[in-house]
């Protein structure tokens, strides 16, 4: 079975591309969804609260992701600390989902993960698709989507590996600086490439 990684920085449209691929009957493993699900694990959640304090805990005992984000996106050391807690659990779950897809005799699985490179998940994939976009467009998208300030958006962008660095790891690059129609067109070209070049 071919396992394809899909990655890209915040605001570049990775989730939009992932959705288009899912609509074209590809099996998607969503690392962001997994990271939310693993926070239901009481042991891991306790470790996160112990590390970052009870001010990130809501009244009902659940995690306030916004408050946690404010801490880690402004402090590289805190982000590394969070990732060291969560990444092993995320990786384990991704492997489990890849194996489930394989058991169903599928030909392709796509791992959708923003931190696929930084999280040391590259060994799980055979090919890597990197989605990029113009940095001004990226900034505008994040501010509008997340309703945050320019400085907050910049903190999130700067917390990730640069787009130029990510591109070096890619087997296939999509520039998503255009509109949705252009992304749909580029997705169809990617699908053709997968079927004709990578599934031989």
From TrEMBL:
Cellular compartments per GO CC: cytoplasm
Biological or metabolic pathway of the protein: Cofactor biosynthesis; coenzyme A biosynthesis; CoA from (R)-pantothenate: step 5/5
Catalytic class of the enzyme: transferase
EC number(s) on file: 2.7.1.24
Domain of life from the UniProt record: Bacteria
UniProt cross-references to Pfam families, sorted A to Z: CoaE (PF01121)
InterPro entries: Depp_CoAkinase (IPR001977), P-loop_NTPase (IPR027417)
Subcellular location, record wording: Cytoplasm
Function per UniProt: Catalyzes the phosphorylation of the 3'-hydroxyl group of dephosphocoenzyme A to form coenzyme A.
Family per similarity comment: Belongs to the CoaE family.
Protein name (record): Dephospho-CoA kinase
Source organism per UniProt: Paraclostridium bifermentans
């Amino acid at each position: 079975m071919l396992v394809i990684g899909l990655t890209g920085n915040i605001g570049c449209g990775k989730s939009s591309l992932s959705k288009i691929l899912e609509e074209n009957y590809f099996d998607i493993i969503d690392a962001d969804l997994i990271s939310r699900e693993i926070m239901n694990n009481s042991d891991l959640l306790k470790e996160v609260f112990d590390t970052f304090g009870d001010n990130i805990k809501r009244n009902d005992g659940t995690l306030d992701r916004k408050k946690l984000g404010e801490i880690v996106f402004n402090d590289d050391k805190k982000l590394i600390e969070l990732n060291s807690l969560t990444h092993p659990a995320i990786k384990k779950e991704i492997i489990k989902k890849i194996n489930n897809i394989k058991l169903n005799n599928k030909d392709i699985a796509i791992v959708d993960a923003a931190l696929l490179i930084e999280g040391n998940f590259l060994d799980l994939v055979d090919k890597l698709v990197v989605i990029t976009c113009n940095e001004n467009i990226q900034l505008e998208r994040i501010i509008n989507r997340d309703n945050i300030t320019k400085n907050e958006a910049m903190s999130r962008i700067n917390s990730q590996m640069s787009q130029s660095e990510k591109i070096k790891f890619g087997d296939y690059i999509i520039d998503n600086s255009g509109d949705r129609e252009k992304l749909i067109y580029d997705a169809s070209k990617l699908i053709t490439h997968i079927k004709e070049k990578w599934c031989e």
